[in-house]
Amino acid sequence: MAIRIEDQNLLFHLQTDHTSYIFHVMENGELGQVYYGKRVHAKPSYDNLTTKEWHNAAAVWRQDHKDVQPQVLKQEYASLGKGDFRYPAYQVTQENGSRITEFKYESYKLVDGKQRLAGLPSSFDDNDDDAQTLTIALRDKLLGLVLHLNYTIFPHQDVIIRSAEFQNQGDEKLTLNAAASAQLDLPDSDYDFIQFSGAWARERHMIRTHLRSGVQSISSLRGTSSHQQNPFVMLARPNTDDANGSVFGFNLVYSGNFADQVQVDQYDASRMLVGINPEEFAWNLKPGEKFQTPEAVLSYTDQGMNQLSQQMGTFYQDHLVNQKFAHVERPTLINNWEATFMDFDEDKLLSFATTAKKLGLEMFVLDDGWFGHRNNDDSSLGDWFVNEPKFPSGFDTFANKIHELGLKFGLWFEPEMISIDSELYKAHPDWLINAPGRHASPERQQFVLDMTRPEVVDYLFDAMSKIIDLTKLDYIKWDMNRNITETYSSQLSAADQLEMPHRYILGVYQLYDRLVKAYPNVLFESCSSGGGRFDLGMMYYAPQAWTSDDTDAVERMLIQFGTSYGYPQAMMGAHVSAVPNDQVGRITSLKTRANVAYFGDFGYELDITKMSAEEQQQVKDQVAFYKAHRKLFQFGKFYRIDNPFENGGNVMSWEVVSDDKQHAIAGRYQILNRPNIGYLRLYVEGLDPDTKYTVNGGSEEFYGDELMNAGLFVSDILHETRGTDKSADFNSNLFVIDAVK
Q1: Residues 154-202: pLDDT tens digits?
Q2: Is 56 domain-assigned?
Q3: Binding-site sequence positions
Q4: Among 532, 593, 692, 729, fewest CB within 10 Å belongs to which?
Q5: 285 with 176: CB under 8 angstroms?
Q6: CA 428, CA 447: separation in Å to the nearest integer?
Q7: Same domain, residue pair 625 and 682
Q8: Which residues belong to any copy of the Glycosyl hydrolase family 36 C-terminal domain (predicted)?
Q9: Rounded distance, CA 410 to CA 364, Å?
């Protein structure tokens, strides 16, 4: 049994292959945190780790238990108001205004496996991977409120899933003001807080800050997980890097307002809280009702951040992502957006698709502009019927022509949005989110539909289903191009308005769930003006996401590198686009653009019909190369080698290695060339030290330990460009490493 329970001492030891998570029931009936870290032996008690001493100037639980002082205790799910003055995991308000609760241990339940949550994206164990689920029941007798703390271990990925459920079994209405998915109290604060922050077109840049007294946090109040912050964070020892050291990872299976917070108290202990942002949140619990938090993902390793990313990524692929596509190689594609924007007709698109087929691509994706009377950003969102003047022969006929070419067919949708200039708005102006008597703030000339309304979800499901059926659709790019303002739902009462942000995202999940179940063969890719909703909640339904609207190769190095800490490369949509780049105006070689985009779900987003014959041949060769190594690029074990967020940021390198260590591909990227530099070496990782390898088909053979420890010589970049009109800046090289047969 991976979860060991000492009934006499009420101690719970959750063991994965390499970690231990231990908590117990304290004298006051609440749960106390004992240990989380590298695996330790199971035993009946850990008196050394649960020792308590009396501290002056601190409230105590009872006069005869002076050493039980809430502000000193490491707890599992803490409240505020009875002597612990740190931020709490939850807060409940009674009808009389009191916010004091006392949850006491009542029972536990241990079962094999892991079931999905109702109405929320969640982890699962469909393939009997030795998962176990422990539920602890606690009760506040005064309120009749029951709290279930859920723990699932996935032992072989060293992952623990946590969530909480509140059940009102009392007689009065209660209001839940905060409800974290997980709390972790650690005994010291010698950690770096590592976050992945940015903005539109520069998402998930790595920021590393040592913990200090007080609170460090990231959050979103945008109605989405956001471009600005990502729900994935790490706590790492100061000496931890990608290859070595101790690190905790935390992620949230949620797509709405969130908060990740770590607080260092006066004793230099740390409290981590992960969950729905308590700002702009409240949930009314009438008698008989319950509230379930999203799931939080916790993982630990003492083998560095590469190992953490790998074990969490394996967990996502096996136990979170839609299993229909989780391990299936994703198609290469061409998207027309940056080539045509909305200025296209049927003939132009068919020419585009025909050329794509000749170049070896596998799917044509038609982006914005195919519906309503949509020819610019001002109209038609919500009108999910064909723009007939652009498709005079019929949309089904056009889709058939794409399929007859031997290509898959994909479409762009933005289901959650509405334009004022639309048939939908004329029929249902009340479906637009806005506060009574207030001006609705436009963004990108569009507004947001009220996804808390069941009739909105029904309308979108029916409209999208008609198009899917008509075109025999293979793929949907689901976009969400703005944040929510004037947050208010006319169908909710005044007392329920703070439920609106969470109810909104539940409506989105409901629509996703219905479509995925009705059309299991359609591959969904999530998008939110690029990477504005790159989170596990979306990945549950859509196993890949558009990583960023910024397709510049240099910017994508940073974005994809930062994203790789929390998410595997199979989740990242990565395309080659035109130069000068639309977002930054930079000119990079076709080679470098592809060398960056290979490490994800590969595609193109430029006008291939206007390329020279030489460029088209280069694209054809790139597509063939990617398809030959696609499984390795999408599902190989990913290693970060040279970190562009450190040491001046001029060089970045990464690598993918096959499970059997017979094949690897490393990419090295240098932004600016330098004069008169010394010899360069690339130190790869993950190979078998005793196996011989060749590099790029060369004749010299290298043992794996030589490539990893002594390194691979990298030639002077200037040699490649001397005597040509090509720049030595923005240079990249791939190293294909194959075991000698």
Answers
A1: 999 999 999 999 999 999 999 999 999 999 999 999 999 999 999 999 9
A2: no
A3: 200, 367-368, 444, 477-481, 527, 549
A4: 692
A5: yes
A6: 13
A7: no
A8: 652-736
A9: 6
Measuring CA to CA, which residue among 376, 574, 546 is closest to residue 477? 546
d(CA 404, CA 223): 41
**CA 262 from centre of chain:** 20
Kindly state the average pLDDT of the residues 671-675: 92
The token pair at 314 is 């394996």
Examine the domain organization and report whether 444 and 560 are in the same domain.
yes
Catalytic hit among 479, 550, 552, 642: 479
Copy the structure tokens of residue 231: 């729900």
Nearest to 485 by CA among 470, 462, 508, 501: 501
Instruction: Name the residue range of residue 684's domain.
Output: 642-739
pLDDT at residue 721, as a whole number: 75
Round the CA-based radius of gyration of the chain to a whole number and report it: 27
Q: Are residues 458 and 476 in the same domain?
A: yes
544 by DSSP, 3-state: which? Answer: strand
Distance CA 34, CA 26 (A): 10
Q: What is the mean pLDDT of the chain?
A: 97
Q: How far is 691 from 697, CA to CA, in rounded Å?
A: 16
Dig out the tokens for 564 from the structure. 């790789």
Q: How many whole angstroms separate alpha carbon 42 and alpha carbon 20? A: 9
- Dihedral sign (CA 388, 389, 390, 396): positive
Closest to 655 (Cα-Cα) out of 668, 645, 646: 668
Active site residue 549: yes
pLDDT in tens, 477-513: 999 999 999 999 999 999 999 999 999 999 999 999 9
| Number of helical H runs and strand E runs in the chain | 14, 38
For 255-279, what is the mean pLDDT? 98
Do 601 and 686 belong together in one domain?
Answer: no
Claim to verify: residue 614 and residue 677 sit in the same structural domain: no
CA distances from 267 to 23, 48, 85 (A): 20, 18, 13
* Residue 348 domain-assigned (yes or no): yes
Q: Give, in order, the Cα–Cα distances in Å from 604 to each of 176, 336, 363, 594, 667.
A: 47, 9, 10, 9, 19
**What CATH number is attached to the domain comprising 426?**
3.20.20.70
Residue 50 burial (CB count, 10 A): 18
Residue 555 host element (H or E): helix 553-563
For residue 514, the one-letter residue type is: R
Cα 101 from Cα 89, distance rounded (Å): 12
The CATH number for 188's domain is 2.70.98.60
pLDDT tens column, 356-376: 999 999 999 999 999 999 999
Query: Residue type at 355?
Result: T
DSSP letters, 210-234, are E--SEEEEEE--SSSS-SS--S-EE
Provide CB contacts within 8 A for 585, sequence distance 6+.
none
The predicted pLDDT at position 723 comes to 74
| Catalytic entry in 549, 550, 552, 582 | 549
- Identify the burial level of 2 via C-beta atoms within 10 angstroms of its C-beta, where 0-12 means exposed, 13-18 middle and 19 or more buried: middle
The CA distance from 537 to 525, in Å, is 13
- Residue 636 corresponds to which amino acid? G
327: in domain: no
Instruction: Quick: pLDDT tens for 52-84.
Output: 999 999 999 999 999 999 999 999 999 999 999
Q: For residues 444 and 482, state if they share a domain.
A: yes
Beta-bridged to residue 525, according to DSSP, are 477, 544
315 and 360 in a single domain? The answer is no
Classify residue 455 as exposed, middle or buried by CB count within 10 Å of its CB (0-12, 13-18, 19+): exposed
Can you tell me the mean pLDDT for 553-582?
A: 98
Known catalytic residue at 479: yes
Q: Which residues are annotated as a binding site for substrate?
A: 200, 367-368, 444, 477-481, 527, 549
C-alpha–C-alpha distance, residues 60 and 228, integer Å: 41
Distance from C-alpha of 626 to C-alpha of 594, rounded to nearest angstrom: 9
The tally of domains found in the chain comes to 3
* Residue among 675, 655, 666, 682 nearest 729 (CA): 675
pTM confidence score:
0.97
Cα end-to-end span (Å), the chain: 42
